[in-house]
Design a protein that fits this description.
Chain A has helices spanning 2-10, 59-74, 94-98, 101-117, 132-137, 160-166, 171-180, 188-192, 211-227, 243-255, and strands at residues 15-16, 24-31, 34-41, 81-87, 122-131, 144-148, 154-156, 199-201. Chain A is α/β, with parallel strands linked by helices and 256 residues long. Chain A has one domain (2-255): Alpha-Beta Complex (2-enoyl-CoA Hydratase, Chain A, domain 1). In chain A, strands 1, 2, 3, 4, 5, 6, 7 and 8 form an eight-stranded mixed sheet that branches. Chain B has 280 residues and is of the alpha/beta class. Chain B has a single domain, classed as 2-enoyl-CoA Hydratase, Chain A, domain 1 (Alpha-Beta Complex), CATH 3.90.226. In chain B, 40% of the residues lie in helices and 13% in strands. Chain B contains eleven helices and seven strands. Chain B has helices at 2-6, 15-22, 84-102, 123-140, 159-166, 183-190, 200-207, 209-214, 226-239, 250-259, 268-276, and strands spanning 29-31, 56-63, 66-73, 108-112, 146-150, 169-173, 220-222. In chain B, a hairpin with a 2-residue loop joins strand 2 (56-63) and strand 3. The radius of gyration of chain B is 19 Å and the shape is globular. Classes of the chains: A alpha/beta (256), B alpha/beta (280). Chains A and B meet through helix 2, helix 3, helix 4, helix 5 and helix 6 of A and helix 3, helix 4, helix 5, helix 6 and helix 10 of B.
Chain lengths: 256, 280
């Protein structure tokens, strides 16, 4: 519910955008006197797709996010887009695979990337889980990533039980490794050490943000919008825990 | 029979041989080749033996005289999973190809996708690299085609299935599988009733290359034959960027999904009829 709480708090008084799946919250509001579009994926207990009822990014969500972002691009005013991220996973299900959930998520990533290339500052605000395919579709194409400091805020490629099964380890072994290998860890501090976040900040009540929390986060979002100085993701490179990513690019350029 | 005997399997080739087979004879030039030993900095400490190319081959050359960069994933190393180095090789190559185009050099890209997605031993750095790959495909695609090929036998899953969905064109064979979530993970997360990972005919019927092509989620369906793949990729490169990207058809797909009765489990024929109608 964090995603919905933060969406409601940040978009108070904003105009809701209609014509989208019920699992998406989209509104055009103001931030520091500037028009912005807020987008969140939320739970929908009545979702027609049963595997996408608790906030997962599924078929309707992927295509719906694409529509919501395309609509912002079509306005032509390069308004900033704020993706509020609290997504437990992509939807895991038979219907999803059969109907090409990969293509739905591609559509969402496509739209966010094109918005960024078209000059929209795209900011992702991580208030809960940002897991795997769900995060790739909703947030990871942003110019700037901001995370709240909280044990419930985490980025990862796969839930622990499944990751253990796929790598033929026990959950305990996986946790032990995660403690010493930063990219395997589930906590936001380890993630921050990879250099992918632009900013982290603490709030007093992450589940039910206070007026002060909302003001501080809003201020941080504005700073991030003003900080956007390019249209690519190069701002994420440079951390020592991600040195190989820079080294490989340098070698490619030399040998190109 | 003559036809079968004259075929040369593409699926049986390794990543480097595949790239070489697609490029014009004598034009293959590998970047960061295995002798430079740029390996994963994360695998050894977890007791996994790293590989000198980290399972990704980047090759420049030409196809029918057109400048091309190929990124080929080696499905035999760690299931074709992408870690920091392999992911950065693909993202960096696509970024340089886009830069070429901004300078008037018309570099195209071909991605040979045999991958389970993120390498879980490098989890968040694999995921970040895949986000970079998505960004770079969308950028390059504005200028020149990015062609994805899923030949088999690993298939294309996870975040890289999203990359496949972003390509200008997608080529599949009968040996290909394409899906977001691997069967084991779906079974783990949703239960055996939802998805039986050991029921191979069932999984192929939903996610195999033929089904993906017949439901409009791939652009070309070709035999596992080097010459046919080479001809298909060449023709697509010459065709230039498509009029309409599949990943930009939100209204169309939302409308189709709204027509679907989502309560029962669905089969392959339902998907074909829903998405493709006239073609199936």
């Amino acid at each position: 519910m964090r995603g919905l709480q933060w969406f409601n708090a940040l978009s108070a008084g904003a105009a809701a955008v209609a014509g989208l799946p019920a699992s998406l919250k989209v509104a055009d509001g103001m931030l520091g006197g500037q028009p912005v579009r807020f987008i969140a994926v939320v739970t929908d207990p009545d979702n027609r797709f049963p595997r996408a009822r608790t906030g997962e990014v599924g078929l309707l969500e992927g295509w719906g996010l694409a529509k919501a972002v395309d609509d912002a691009i079509a306005r032509g005013d390069q308004r900033p887009i704020i993706a509020i991220v609290d997504v437990p996973s992509q939807a895991y299900g038979r219907r999803e695979e059969a109907l090409g959930i990969h293509q739905a998520l591609a559509a969402a990533a496509d739209s966010y990337a094109r918005a960024r290339l078209a000059g929209h500052p795209v900011i992702a605000l991580l208030v809960g889980k940002a897991m795997s395919g769900a995060f790739l579709a909703h947030g990871y194409q942003a110019n700037r990533l901001i995370a709240l400091r909280d044990p419930g805020v985490m980025v990862h490629a796969m839930g622990k039980a499944s990751a253990a099964r796929v790598t033929l380890r026990s959950v305990e072994e996986l946790e032990a490794l995660a403690a010493s290998v930063p990219p395997m860890a589930y906590d936001i501090e380890s993630f921050a050490s990879l250099g992918l976040l632009w900013e982290t900040l603490s709030v007093s009540q992450i589940e039910q943000p206070t007026a002060d929390d909302v003001a501080r986060v809003g201020d941080c979002l504005l700073k991030a919008i003003r900080d956007v100085d390019g249209r690519d993701l190069s701002g994420r490179l440079g951390a020592s825990n991600r040195a190989a990513s820079s080294h490989v690019r340098q070698l490619l350029r030399e040998q190109w | 029979m003559t036809d079968l005997l004259s075929r040369h399997s593409f699926v049986e080739l390794g990543a480097r041989q595949r790239a070489r087979a697609l490029l014009d004879s004598g034009t293959f030039r590998e970047l960061i080749d295995p002798f430079q030993r740029v390996m994963s900095p994360w695998l050894s400490r977890q007791g996994v033996v790293p590989q000198a190319d980290d399972g990704v081959v980047i090759a420049k050359g030409s196809i029918a005289g057109l400048p091309v960069v190929i990124a080929a994933i080696e499905g035999n190393f760690q299931g074709g999973s992408l870690g920091e180095v392999g992911g950065a090789k693909i993202a960096g190559a696509l970024e340089l190809a886009a830069e070429d185009n901004r300078k008037g050099i018309e570099t195209r890209a071909v991605l040979l996708l045999e991958t389970g997605g993120v390498r879980l031993q490098e989890a968040n750095l694999g995921l970040a690299a895949i986000a970079d790959i998505h960004a770079a495909i969308v950028d390059l695609r504005q200028y020149r085609p990015v062609i994805g090929v899923v030949a088999g036998s690993v298939g294309c899953f996870g975040g890289m299935s999203i990359a496949a969905g972003l390509c200008s064109y997608l080529v599949v064979t009968r040996e290909a599988r394409l899906g977001l979530n691997g069967p084991q993970v779906i079974e783990q997360e949703a239960g055996l009733e939802e998805y039986d990972s050991r029921d191979r005919p069932f999984i192929w019927s939903l996610t195999g290359g033929e089904q993906r092509f017949n439901s409009g989620l791939a652009d070309r369906y070709v035999a596992d034959d080097v010459a046919q793949l080479q001809q298909t990729v060449t023709a697509l490169l010459q065709q230039g960027v498509p009029a309409q990207q599949r990943s930009r058809q939100a209204e169309h797909y939302l409308a189709r999904l709204n027509e679907l009765d989502a309560s029962p489990h669905i089969d392959a024929a339902t998907v074909r009829a829903l998405y493709q109608g006239e073609r199936s």
